[in-house]
Amino acid sequence: CDPLEVRLELKDDRDVTLFLEHHAHELDQFELVRERPDENVGHSKAELDRAAMDRSTGRTIAEMLDGINGVDLQQSGPTISKPVIRGLSGNRVLLLN
After folding, report:
1. What 8-state DSSP symbol labels residue 51?
2. Residue 2 DSSP SS3
3. How far apart are CA 44 and CA 23, in angstroms?
C-alpha cells in the first residue's frame, strides 16, 4: 500500500483508533539513539547492522538488542522479553517491528 501521512491537532482529550495494514518488512539496520547526550553516558548512539541481524537469525529484536551497552532484557516468560534501555522500559521505549 502507499504511505499515508495523517496529522491530528488535538485540543482536548479524545480517543483515536487507527487501523494499520499488516505487512511484512525486513529491517536493514536498527539504530538506538539517545536524543540528549550526557557526559556521564558513554555513547548516545548504537547500531545493529544487517550483518549482525543475519547472524542473530531466530532471535527477537529485544534479544538482539541485549548485546548493546545500556540495554537489558526484562523477561516475563520463556519467550517473552522486553528491552530496558538505560533504565527505561514499557511505554517509555518504542520498539517498532
Report:
1. H
2. coil
3. 31
Q: What is the CA radius of gyration of the chain?
A: 17
**E strand residue ranges, the chain:** 29-33, 45-49, 71-75, 81-85
Instruction: Give me the long-range contacts of 43-48 (CB less than 8 A, separation at least 24).
Output: 43/69, 46/70, 46/71
Q: pTM value? A: 0.41
Q: What is the b/e burial string over 42-51, where b = at least 16 CB atoms within 10 angstroms of the residue's CB?
A: eeeebebeee
Distance CA 10, CA 51 (A): 42
How many angstroms separate the CA atoms of 92 and 87, rounded?
Answer: 10
State pLDDT tens for residues 17-31.
877 776 666 656 666
What are the tens digits of pLDDT across the range 28-71?
666 656 556 555 555 556 777 778 778 878 887 777 777 777 78
